[in-house]
Amino acid sequence: MCGIVGLFLKTDRYRDRLGELTAVMLHEMRERGPDSAGFAVYDEGRPGRTRVTVLAERSTPEWGQVAASLEAQLGAAVTVRSIRDHAVFETDGDGRAARQWLIDHGPDVDVLSYGNQIELYKSVGDPDLVAINYDLASRSGTHAIAHTRMATESAVTTNGSHPFVTGADTCLVHNGSFSNHNQLRERLVQRGESFQTENDTEVAAGYLSWRLREGDTIEQALEQALVDLDGFYTLAIGIESGFAILRDPISCKPAVVAETDDWVAMSSEYRAIARLPGVEHAEVFEPEPSRIYTWSLAS
Amino acid sequence: MNPGSESTILDMEITTLRELNAALHEADSGDFVVRNPRGAHAVAAGINSPVAVTVEGSVGYYCAGMHQVGRVLVHGNASTGLAENIMSGEVRITGSATMSAGATGHGGLLVIEGNSGARCGISMKGVDIVVGGNVGHMSAFMAQAGSLVVLGDAADDLGDSIYEAQVFVRGDVASLGADCIEKEVRPEHIEIVTGLLAASSMQADPADFRRYGSARQLYNFHVDDIDAEVAAR
C-alpha cells in the first residue's frame, strides 16, 4: 500500500492553512502507511534565495557553527532553523555551492531537498506524530505533497521514507512498486547518480533527476519514465509552483483528483479530500493511465 | 423509497461503520439514509434483506459489496469495488465509480449514472451493469455471464479474455481485448438492451448499441500452439 496526498492552492484564500489542510489529508491516509511519513511544503519563493533541508540521523551537529562555516565559504549570509533532526539552511548566496558544501564538507547529514521554494521533512513512525513533530499544521504556502509508507521493497528507515528529492524544488512520492529498479539503479550509477538506500522509489527519483539534469522538462522526463520505469505506480511530483501526477498504464494503484476554483487536491483515496473546504462543489475525477497531469501557478 | 414511511437516519459523524452496517444487517425491511460518508469504505456492505438505503455523499472502497435483495442509492461517487460480488437487488450511484465496479457480481443490477473506471465488470458472473457515461480500460475482463451496457465510450482492451457475458456499447470502443469481437445485433439483443435501459431508467435508443462478445478462440487447446506448450515445459 502507501498513501499519497497533494494539495495545490490556486488562490491565496487558504495559503495560511496549507499545512493544516495537508495534515488533515495525511491523517486520513495513516491506515495506508503506518510505517513512516514525510511531507514537502512549498511557498511562493523569493528570487535569489536557496533553501537546503538536511537530515542529521547519525550525528547531532551544532547547526549555528555549520551555518557560520558555510557563510565563510559562500561569502554570503546564511541562516539556519532546526527542528528535531532536520535543519533548513537559507542563503541568498550561491545555492548550488551551499548544497554541494553541505554534502562534501558539512557534518554527517543527508540533503533532503534544495531549491527556492521547498522544505522537506520525513521520519519513521505514525504519520500523525510525524506531522506534529515537524509542525506541519502551522505551515503556510502554495502547495504540499505528502506520503504515508507501508514498506514493501526495502527497510523502514527515515532515508527510505518519501518524499525523495529529484532536483531543485522537485521531489517525488510513490504508491506502488518498481520491478526493474535494480537494473535501472546500475544504469543510473553509470550516469553519475548516487543512491543512499535499496529503495525502489529512490531509483525513480534518481531517474527523474538524471532526465531533468539532461535538460528534460518535467513533462518530457515523465513521458520517458513511462517507457523506462516498469512496475505499478501512482506518482505525485512536487515541482516549482505546482505538482504533477503520473500513473502506470495498468493503474491498479489508486488515485483521485478534486478541483475547485481555489485548489487542486490529489490523493490515494477520496476520504483524504472529503474534509477540504468547498469539496462539495469540487470537480472530482480519477486520473487516466499513462497520462501526465500538471498544475502550476506558472501556467 | 416508500412514500410516507419514516426513514432511519444514520449519520457517520456519530455512527461508526460497524454500527451502521450492523443496523442494516439487523433490519428486515425499511428505509435508511446514510449521512456524511466522506469516502468511508464498506458502506452498506453485506445487505441481505429488502431494505432501501440512500447514501448522501461519496463513498470509498467496496460500497454495497456482497449485496443481496435490497436497494442502495448513492448520491455521489464511489471508489474501488462498488457492488463487488453483488448477488441480487439493485445498487445505483448518481456520480462516477473508479476501478472494478461490479467485480465478480453474480446477479442483480448495478447502475452507474456517470463514468466507470478501469475493469468495470471484471469477472462478472451474471450481474447486469448499466453505465451512463464511459468505462475504463479492460472493462468486462474475463466476464463470464450477464450484460454490460455502456451509453458512452469504452477505453482500451474491452472484453479481454471474455467468456459468455454480453457487452453493448453505444459510443466508441478504443480497442478490443484478446478474443473479444464485435457481433451481430439480433432482435433478442435489442430486447436485452431495451429491458436494461428501462430497468435502469436510462434514456437511449436501443438500436444505437453495438454488441461485443467472445470469439471463443481461447476456450480450447489448439494443436498449432504445441510448440509454445513444449517450450513452456
Q: Can you put this structure into words, describing what you see?
A:
The complex is a heterodimer of chains A (299) and B (233). Chain A is an alpha+beta fold and 299 residues long. Chain A has helices at residues 18-28, 63-74, 95-104, 127-133, 181-190, 200-213, 218-228; strands spanning 3-9, 36-42, 50-55, 78-83, 86-91, 110-115, 118-124, 143-149, 164-167, 170-178, 231-239, 242-247, 256-259, 263-267, 283-285, 293-296. The longest helix of chain A has 14 residues, at 200-213. Chain A has seven helices and 16 strands. A seven-stranded antiparallel β-sheet of chain A has the order 7-2-8-1-14-13-15, covered by helices on one side. A five-stranded antiparallel β-sheet of chain A has the order 9-10-11-12-16. In chain A, helix 5 (181-190) packs parallel to helix 6 (200-213) and helix 6 (200-213) packs across helix 7 (218-228). Chain A has two domains: 3-43 and 139-296, Glutamine Phosphoribosylpyrophosphate, subunit 1, domain 1 (4-Layer Sandwich), CATH 3.60.20.10; 46-116, MTH889-like domain (Alpha-Beta Plaits). Chain B has 233 residues and is an alpha/beta fold. Chain B contains three helices and eleven strands. In chain B, strands 1-2-3-4-5-6-7-8-9-11-10 form an eleven-stranded mixed β-sheet, covered by helices on one side. Chain B starts with 6 loop residues before the first strand and ends with a helix. Classes of the chains: A alpha+beta (299), B alpha/beta (233). Chains A and B meet through loops of A and loops of B.
Topology:
The complex is a heterodimer of chains A (about 300) and B (about 230).
Chain A: E1 3-9, H1 18-28, E2 36-42, E3 50-55, H2 63-74, E4 78-83, E5 86-91, H3 95-104, E6 110-115, E7 118-124, H4 127-133, E8 143-149, E9 164-167, E10 170-178, H5 181-190, H6 200-213, H7 218-228, E11 231-239, E12 242-247, E13 256-259, E14 263-267, E15 283-285, E16 293-296
Helix pairs in contact in A: 5-6, 6-7
Chain B: E1 7-11, H1 17-26, E2 30-35, E3 51-56, E4 71-75, E5 90-93, E6 109-112, E7 128-131, E8 147-150, E9 166-169, E10 180-183, H2 187-199, E11 210-214, H3 226-232
Parallel strand pairs in B: 1-2, 2-3, 3-4, 4-5, 5-6, 6-7, 7-8, 8-9
Antiparallel strand pairs in B: 9-11, 10-11
